[in-house]
Design brief:
Layout (H helix, E strand, L loop, with lengths): L2 H46 L6 H62 L5 H16 L1 E10 L4 E8 L9 E2 L3 H9 L3 E2 L15 E7 L2 E11 L8 H42 L1
Antiparallel strand pairs: 1-2, 1-6, 2-3, 4-5, 5-6
């Protein structure tokens, strides 16, 4: 959400709080005035005693009773308005918490993405991605799988909570994982509560894409205990993470391959010059 929208939201929340406070104070004043008028009526009635009220006293009593009735009605209107403001304040408070959480997650993702692109070491990149998935997504068991373009096979290169050798290799287009890699579309199980761990059928499968090219997938099998469901911000995090992770992985692999080839050439040249 843009910063200006956040400021506007906070301003409206403060305005509603001011209205609520003023309404509460005014209601208290009305109740005190109501009690004062009732006490005044009782005083007049007691002062009259058994004698019949004079026309002037009857008129004063009637005026006070009408004033009390008007104040009672006004009090009900204000109490209803206060109730409405309280409901609106609850909505604003809930939305504020959501926005704050979203901003924190996006800030954390920005820091994490900076870390991702600060190194060209392939193993280090995989470790950073693993930490992001645990800390930001809240996953406990998952795998990062990369696609071999020559064979069309997806194979796990990093895992958490499961042995890498236990994660089955998948052909492009085969099963949920292969289909996600082929189409480039995210997959989420309809109901997290009914899901049972199945290494062939993850609860979440996110393609790692650079533009329209899929280089691998992120598969999640289990969430941390405190993570019961996915919030709206999680889906945004998945999309952003997939893009940053794909770019970092692709760059680090290219660098590793080029460095390995360079070392091979350098070794060959060293042999020739000796």
């Amino acid at each position: 959400m843009p910063l200006d929208d956040d400021k506007g939201f906070l301003t409206r929340a403060e305005e509603f709080m001011q209205v609520f406070k003023k309404g509460a104070e005014f209601t208290q004043d009305l109740m005190r005035e109501n009690e004062r008028l009732r006490f005044r009526v009782l005083e007049l009635e007691n002062a009259q005693g058994p004698q019949a009220a004079t026309p002037q006293q009857s008129s004063e009593n009637q005026r006070l009773l009408q004033r009390i009735a008007a104040l009672e009605k006004e009090k009900e209107v204000i109490l209803e308005r206060i109730r409405q403001v309280e409901e609106e304040n609850k909505d604003f408070a809930n939305r504020y918490v959501e926005i704050e959480s979203e901003n924190n997650n996006l800030a954390n993702l920005y820091i994490a993405s900076y870390q991702l692109h600060s190194t060209l070491d392939f193993r280090e990149v995989l470790q950073i991605i693993t930490e992001i998935i645990i800390n930001l997504i809240g996953a406990e068991t998952f795998a990062i799988m990369l696609l071999d373009e020559k064979t069309g096979i997806l194979e796990a290169v990093a895992t958490e909570g499961v042995e890498r050798s236990d994660v089955p290799k998948v052909t492009l287009g085969g099963g949920i994982i292969g289909e996600v890699a082929r189409t480039g579309e995210n997959f989420f199980v309809p109901d997290l509560n009914d899901y049972q761990i199945d290494l062939d059928n993850p609860m979440v499968c996110i393609p790692l894409k650079i533009k329209e090219q899929t280089i691998g997938v992120l598969v999640i099998y289990k969430l941390l205990l405190q993570k019961k469901s996915f919030a709206d911000v999680d889906y945004e995090l998945f999309t952003l993470l997939a893009g940053h992770a794909a770019t970092a992985v692709f760059s680090s692999r290219l660098y590793s391959d080029s460095e390995r080839k360079l070392n091979t050439i350098q070794g060959f040249l060293d042999l020739l010059t000796k």
